[in-house]
Amino acid sequence: MRNNTVSISLTLQSYFLSILFVSFSSFSFAASKDVIDRDFWGMLYKNGGETFYCNKPFKKKGPLISESYIYSSTWIREYLDCGTKRQCKKNNPDYNKIISDLHNIVPSDAYFEFKRKNSMYGTLDKTVEPNECGIRKKHHILEPADHLKGDIARILMYMHTRYHLPLNTSLSLLKFWNNNDMPDSKEKKRNKAIKAIQGNGNPYIEDTLLIDTIKR
């Protein structure tokens, strides 16, 4: 069993090493705003869709709809220690690469995104009432609706593995969320669309057993 686990871990490492050069060379990573306008809104959601957290339908980007980063852009800046948002975009190419990764970006209700921004994912006592979207939030902790927990876990693990970003949510909790909320057809379809645009998929969606091989 141990040999199998080591083999899977090495396979995962090889996967990320292979896509690191392929997708970074084929994906221009221009200014992150250009990438978001062109690829996220212009291609991935060119025909509209539903907001990630509340499943509200939209036809196109507008003042009430904004992009949302599952792994917060603030956490990325803090990890890279590159200064303000403006400074990071101007002076740090790694920031522009990471912030442009479509796997980490979802459409969100702008008002909810303003309230959610920089919250950490975790679990809350059931005495905390969920909002109309099934989300519990208290202070800086946010517990997503059950049908989103696996999606979020797989995105956070992708960002952690690919860019070596630290996890702000416990690994054991992310594994639990992954195992109890498997990828549905919507998540798989989005992953396939991103792969066509960006050049790589999220391996944790394509093989849900991979997350169990990850150790701190």
Question: Would you write up a description of this structure?
Answer:
By secondary structure, the chain is mainly alpha-helical. It has one domain (about 1-215). It is built from ten helices and seven strands. The protein has helices at about 1-25, 30-45, 75-80, 85-90, 95-100, 110-115, 145-165, 170-180, 185-200, 205, and strands at about 50, 55-60, 65-70, 105-110, 120, 135-140, 140-145. The strands form three sheets. It has a three-stranded mixed sheet, with no helix packed on it. Strands 1-2 form a two-stranded antiparallel ribbon. A two-stranded antiparallel sheet has the order 3-4. The chain is globular, with a radius of gyration of 17 Å. It starts with a helix and ends in a 10-residue tail after the last helix. The model is unreliable at about 1-10 and about 15-30 (pLDDT under 50).
Task: Produce a short descriptive summary.
The chain is mostly helical and 216 residues long. The chain is 52% helix and 10% strand. β6 (136-138) and β7 (141-143) form a beta hairpin.
For the structure shown, list the relevant keywords.
216 residues; mainly alpha; three-stranded mixed beta sheet; two-stranded antiparallel sheet; 52% helix
User: What is the domain total for the residues?
Assistant: 1
Q: Specify the biggest β-sheet.
A: 3 strands, mixed
Secondary-structure-derived class:
mainly alpha
Low-confidence stretches: 1-10, 17-29
Report the oligomer.
single chain
Count helical runs: 10
